[in-house]
Amino acid sequence: MTITRSPLLQIVAAVSAVLVFASACEDAPLEIYNDFVDRTATERTGGTSFSYDDLEGRLVDVRGDWLFNIYLLPLGDVLLELRTTFITFQLNDTGDIADITGEFRMANAPVDSPPLASFTTQLTEDGRMEIATGRVLVPGELSPIPNTEVDTDFTLSVIVIDNGFMCGSIQDEDSVVYAPRNFPLINTIFGAQPYSDDGTQPTEVPDRCPAVDIVDPNQDAGNDGDAGTGDCTETLAPPIEDLGEGVPTDVSGRYFFEANLLSGATQIGLIMDTVYRETGDGATLDGFIRSPAQGPLQPAIASFSTTVDDNGEFGLVICDLVTESSLGEVRADIALRGIIKDSDTMCGVGDGEAYSPLALPLDGATWGAIRIDDDAFEAPPNGSINVCP
Q1: With b meaning 16 or more CB within 10 Å and e meaning fewer, what string describes 295-307?
Q2: What is the pTM of this model?
Q3: By CB distance 3.0 to 4.6 Å, which of 69, 251, 293, 316 could disulfide with 336?
Q4: In the 8-state DSSP scheme, what is residue 77?
Q5: In a shared domain, residues 154 and 240
């Protein structure tokens, strides 16, 4: 496994590629996710985190065209480039607030094309403003994902640093991508610079605000609370077992994942979204996992990146797994060996150790994943699998 920016999402992993899970039980998933994001920003984005409180903004006239480079986390290296036109800038009587109107267009769209969205906002004396796009539908021919329509709705929290740079993030919990996959956009980052007077688009726009709080890239990427038991990758590896014949074929999409643990005493079911990508020397499988109990708009509880060999096999190490099961909350370190059987089916075996509800080794664990509809968020009506067919 490698630590890279995947085509679907920012992969958060240790050098050994640890999967990190947040509790879906005792703590609010969004609270755990935000803490996780704060403590692992360097690994996830290749840069540093920042705090709005320590950034100095300014109330300046921002009229004109600006290029917004918006990295749609958790989709990862999906860059949404928006040509944002600030049309009006009207100071109030006391000069400490400006009313602003503006429009959004894709940067690759003609300048005179209809806007994707229009907005009104206020820029305060500390250089802060909130820009809500409303529902935006990006056609496939202009989409940041080639030939794929993007349906989204988000609110940008903006800080105007000066008349040549603004930046910020998405902190609104209701900001989401609806299609091609349903993803929350909280903690998306962006930077923006103005076009030149002759209309030339800026070429090197920073993707975030100036760093204030530096995150140690070597710190634990897991949950500091009861969910964490440490880094298990030095002592745990995917089991070696003959899984039969597989095929390295495209398994991009949504799957229902079910694991059979503790000799069949308990099962866990999860939603797994994946992107399969062929490379020059094989293939990669990137994805993230969510709990059906949390609902489709909640943040992912895990993300992963791995390589696929020429028999369709891959391996994952899952440290500090905390999720609901048929016996209640399960806490475990798990190593998975998987194989792609066809474009609709993956399966495999597992090893590791459970800490609750029973303290038992997990050797002999099995799992399966079958394709479900892209808008589904539950077990398929015809049943799932938790063992290789």
Answers
A1: ebebbbbbbbbbb
A2: 0.47
A3: 316
A4: S
A5: no
